[in-house]
Amino acid sequence: MNEALRRAMLQAHMTDRKLAERCGVDIKTVGRWITETGRVPRARHRWAVCEALGEDEAVLWPAAVKKAIKVGPDREVVSVYPYRSGCPASLWRSLITKAERELTFAGYTNYFLWLEQARFGTALRRKAAQGCRVRFLLGDPDSDLTRSREQDEDVALTLSTRIRVTLAELEKIRSQPGIDARYSEGHAYLSVFRFDDDMIVTPLLTHSVGHDAPTLHLRRYQDDGMFDRFASHIEELWRRGSPVWEGEDDG
Hints:
Number of domains: 2
Structural class: alpha+beta
Low-confidence stretches: none
Order of helices and strands: HHHHHHEHEHHEHHEEEEHE
Radius of gyration: 19 Å
Largest sheet: 8 strands, mixed
């Protein structure tokens, strides 16, 4: 039995029938994927399952990817998306759910998370209560840089408004120990979101908004690799950042 697939389906609340519909196969085929040890679906079906469940192919069918295991410096690149909006919301949820040590959200506004992740604040509060460090790096809504970027974006829902929405949501959960937030301008054009040893990176292109940014899903496999480079960047910004809440600075 493919226990990894079965667990992923349970976590995603995905029935055999729903998964079959998402992948364009018969429900009996999904049953065989689960019950027949060593059975590996076709590549297009594996990719459809991974997208539907927000899980990696290497987790569900490790044998299928052994032949294509990367050994170079790009092996930390799990997947790429031309647009952040193309990165499944289920993947974000899966990474948030699995994180045990660290959740760092270094987007300039982080606004989209509150829209796309149901009961996001509740999930953060629960993670922090379980000992997971939760950090937010935000742009200052009143800074010159924010005003300059607003002119570049030229959209109705301004950057400062989106930042203030995030600040209002964080205010609701700030009483939970383990949740902290700081202002920084060093990530205005590069958002980094860390979930233990997984990371989503979105470099912002000229005159574009966050959901149009190309997106990388990274996983740490080596010292001083791509993951560590981005992680060090965020740690330095956090060190230099200023606390969102007066009198609160846990280092």
